[in-house]
Design a protein that fits this description.
This protein is of the alpha+beta class. It is about 45% helix and about 20% strand. It is built from two helices and four strands. It has helices at about 1-80, 140-145; strands at about 80-90, 95-110, 110, 115-125. Strands 1, 2, 3 and 4 form a four-stranded antiparallel β-sheet that branches. The longest helix has about 80 residues, at about 1-80.
Length: about 180
Amino acid sequence: MQLQAVMWLALPLFVAGGSALLAYFIMQARLEVAVSKEREALAEAQGIINAQKSTMEERVKAVQEATRRTTMDEMMKEFRVEERSYVRESKSLESATRTMVTQERMFFRNIPLSEWRDHEMVVEESSQGLALSPANQAPVEFANALPPAETPKSNDRVFPIDQPAKAPAREKRSLAHAGFGAQ
């Protein structure tokens, strides 16, 4: 009888141990399922965060570029070119020349950035010079004191007399509003 009593005492302990192992494995499986769902949700959230981060970086770069572009445009609007022109006549005994002189200089707001730059264009050239009438003749000692006719510079546009003078094509300006402030 002792063996039966020990078996009756050991049987509930054996069933309790088996139930505990069964509960442990079931809970372990549930925990693994919950962890895998959490990992899946975390990976999805990280993907969304990374996508939003890259989108936000692109937006920030676009806004910075647009701001830089508008700032540059506003600064370029502050530059202006002032132009003035006049006609210069050079007369000597041998020739007479009419030259159109266009001067320009660049400003930033009201601050001049450059000196006046001259662009000369010969409009009319005559080989007659001063007509020497008896009343108009100068003494010999003063004839050499007259200033010589101006020689054109290398960057001037010179048109020969036998060809009609054409207006030169406007030079391209680096600023979009080069005509701004023209006189």
